[in-house]
Design a protein that fits this description.
It is a single chain. The chain is α/β, with parallel strands linked by helices. The protein is built from seven helices and 28 strands. Helix 1 (18-28) packs parallel to helix 6 (312-330), helix 3 (215-225) runs parallel beside helix 6 (312-330) and helix 4 packs across helix 5 (271-277). The longest helix is centred in the last third of the chain and has 19 residues, at 312-330. The protein is elongated and about 90 Å long.
Amino acid sequence: MAQLSDDCFAFGGPLLPLADALAMLSERVPAVADVERLPLAACQGRVLRAPLIASLAVPAYDNAAVDGYAVRFEDLDPKAETRLPLGRRAAAGHPLDRAIELGEAIRIFTGAPLPEGADTVMMQEDCSLHEGVVTIRPGIGKGANRRAAGEDVAEGSELLPAGRRLRPWDLGLAASQGASELPVARPLKVALCSTGDELAEPGTERHPGQIYDSNRRMVAALLHGEGCQVTDLGILADRRTPIRTALADAAEDHDLLLTTGGVSSGEEDHVKAALIAAGGVLHFWRLAIKPGRPLALGTLGKAAFAGLPGNPVACAVTFAALVRPLLQRMSGAVIGGLSTFPAVSGFDHDKKRGRQEWLRVSLEPRGKALPRAHRFPRDGAGILSSLVGSDGFLILEEHLTQVPRGSTLPFLPFSEVLA
């Protein structure tokens, strides 16, 4: 369960910049997920909760990087061909059981340990073998084609830090140490609902004045991508009592309560009052971001609460900008910055100072030049097709008021906000 102090998300006054909001998350939101040990095969995407320290050097011994012949460099003539008698052979898993002799070449294969005394490997393509004698061309450097012990991993080094979301190559690195399991955070338990009498469940009859609920499906998929266990509370009516009851019940055994819609200040926005009526604390951020300013964060018992906007694009942006970092922090993960790359604006744009804007754009590759960003023609916060028809977000920082065509700006691909 989340244990956040009452003032964890407290803020009043001017719009809160996104950077300040993320700093607040890093400082004040604790990790709440319990630790469990899982086999490597089940650790993909999980958050590592203790650092992995190398107990072994990798490679554990000097070995051959190519198929060829292991030699002592001092036996080679630097200016003319060298002829050495062929000794025995060494293969991966079958090391030579003695040291190399003076003036001898050992047939060796990729991955095989270098015999004691050997320090250089000649590629078989640079040698010829005739009647038990290996002829070696000059020009090789000492230590060529040798993988040194510990060049990949030094014994005692930190391989993976605590808080890292594990990727396939991380699991491979752990396996190289002989690890069969790792301590990881258990999945966060998230209760998800939509609010609004205007919403209909997909697959059911839609009555006059209703729309199908798209937010819940979208957010559930985003949560599953973050490794969360999602409890679907369905669509809650625009009445305080059912919302209060659903939130209070879910707070008993969930880490996070997540709603979409109903968090503004209109007469039909009941989520704030319902949370407070259930005994929760709501700290409403007037976030300096467009789309997505109405975002509610708070607590109910030991559960954290996040209320996302009802407009689908605003919902997606605020999930990417704040809910995803919130989930990372609650899982014990390090909150990383979003990785953007430069793109050139293919349009002019005016904006208000003091808020960050996330514009939906598609990219036009231009060879060696920076890609050109083209804005989706309709930019309303409710235009869900704008996400489908775009490649990512062009981010305009708070201080900007004008973006002339040709400006270089940070582009955030959707892949950076999807686990």
